[in-house]
Amino acid sequence: MIRPMSPGLVLLLLVAGLLALLPVWRLRVAGWSASTLGVAWLLYAAGMIAAIRLPEVDRYLVPILVLAWLAPFVAGPERLARVARRRHVTATVIDVTPRLPGGGHDGDRAEPPRTVEGEVIEDTAHRRT
């Protein structure tokens, strides 16, 4: 036979579940997927219940929960969306190093001219004669 749950435990589960919905709602606004939101809600609610029911882990779990609960409200939606999307972007590197006339070797590359306030200044100290 199933024993009835105490009203205090039912209230605890309801309050933890509802409090866990607030940061999850903010993550939903940032565009997180439904499965990720479900996992986040479970972690928030389980963390809150564990912090209340297990006093020996309060010292470590409560600061983590406070930071995790406040983070979606402090970070903007664009920053939260970046966390959710983990795309690997590859960039094309174009070599624009000037070459010496006649196809000199790597050690013979000329330094590009230096630009200061829109004017090109020739560096005569490194010029070969």
Helix/strand layout:
Layout: H1 7-29, H2 34-53, H3 58-74, H4 77-84, E1 114-116, E2 119-121
Antiparallel strand pairs: 1-2
Helix pairs in contact: 1-2, 1-3, 2-3
Descriptive overview:
There is one protein chain. By secondary structure, this protein is mainly alpha-helical. The chain has helices at 7-29, 34-53, 58-74, 77-84, and strands spanning 114-116, 119-121. It is built from four helices and two strands, in the order ααααββ. The protein has a domain at 7-84. The protein starts with 6 loop residues before the first helix and ends in an 8-residue tail after the last strand. The longest helix is centred in the N-terminal third of the chain and has 23 residues, at 7-29. The mean pLDDT is 77. Strands 1-2 form a two-stranded antiparallel sheet.
Query: Which outline best applies?
Result: elongated
What are the low-pLDDT stretches, counting only 5+ consecutive residues below 50? none
Order of helices and strands: HHHHEE
Please list the strands of the largest sheet in the order they lie side by side.
1-2
* Beta-strand proportion: under 5%
Helix content: 40-55%
Task: Give the strand tally.
Answer: 2
Distance between the termini: 100 Å
User: Largest sheet, described in full?
Assistant: 2 strands, antiparallel
Tell me the radius of gyration.
30 Å
Structural class: mainly alpha
Question: Overall pLDDT, averaged?
Answer: 77
Summed up, the helix count is 4
